[in-house]
């Protein structure tokens, strides 16, 4: 990753980065010289310099009635990052404090089931993250899976650290597997319905939700999560009955 991309991740835009890098190479310089070197008008350049000063990355001084700007030691970037991290930590605390209120406002659709659709590996990852988030707050941290050898690699590719996170949070899983492969990890139990062939879909039953993951004709992972207590409970009862016969 190059310098510009890293600075963007710190929250600076392209013009701010251009001015900062030019100032590092120029040394003390006037607004006019900085603007010319950056190819940005003087007014915008001055606004950028003021912003960089607030971030502690630029200072100025006067010499012979002229104002000169100079970049601070690049080590200041680390302090800037520390400040961002502290700010994010405070923001996290504020968000956590309002989550109960937001949850009370959350419209779950009354008595109607709620369906959410997901696409791609990122969508599959969102479903797996929802499993962790949903069960993380439950007293009974257990869910049920119909695992298919046809889709096992898709789930692993979307969220390689899922099993590690599941175990870390003390979440148990029972798996009815279809197709060869698969293994028992900590806090998991596995039985095979068949080892002959996998199924075209992968199903997870957790909390009040049931998730189904499949692949379309273009090999795009697709998922749907249905949130409804009665549907999830029915799926759980069917799973437990089948489990007891294997």
DSSP summary, beta strand count: 9
Oligomer: single chain
Classification by helices and strands: alpha+beta
Main sheet specs: 7 strands, mixed
Strand content: 15-25%
Tell me, what is the CATH class of the largest domain?
Alpha Beta
Q: Termini distance? A: 51 Å
Number of helices: 9
Rg, rounded, reads: 27 Å
Query: H/E series, N to C?
Result: HHHHEEHEHEHHEEEEEH
Kindly state the mean pLDDT as a whole number? 88
CATH superfamily of the largest domain: Endonuclease Chain A
Overall helicity: 40-55%
Q: Unreliable runs, pLDDT <50, ≥5 residues? A: none
Describe this protein's structure.
The chain has 246 residues and is an alpha+beta fold. It folds into two domains: 101 residues, Arc Repressor Mutant, subunit A (Orthogonal Bundle); 132 residues, 2-Layer Sandwich (Endonuclease, Chain A). The protein has nine helices and nine strands. The strands form two sheets. It has a seven-stranded mixed beta sheet with strand order 3-9-8-7-4-5-6, sandwiched between helices. Strands 1-2 form a two-stranded antiparallel sheet. A hairpin with a 2-residue loop joins strand 1 and strand 2. Helix 2 crosses helix 3. It is elongated and about 90 Å long. It starts with a helix and ends with a helix. The relative contact order is 0.10. The mean pLDDT is 88.
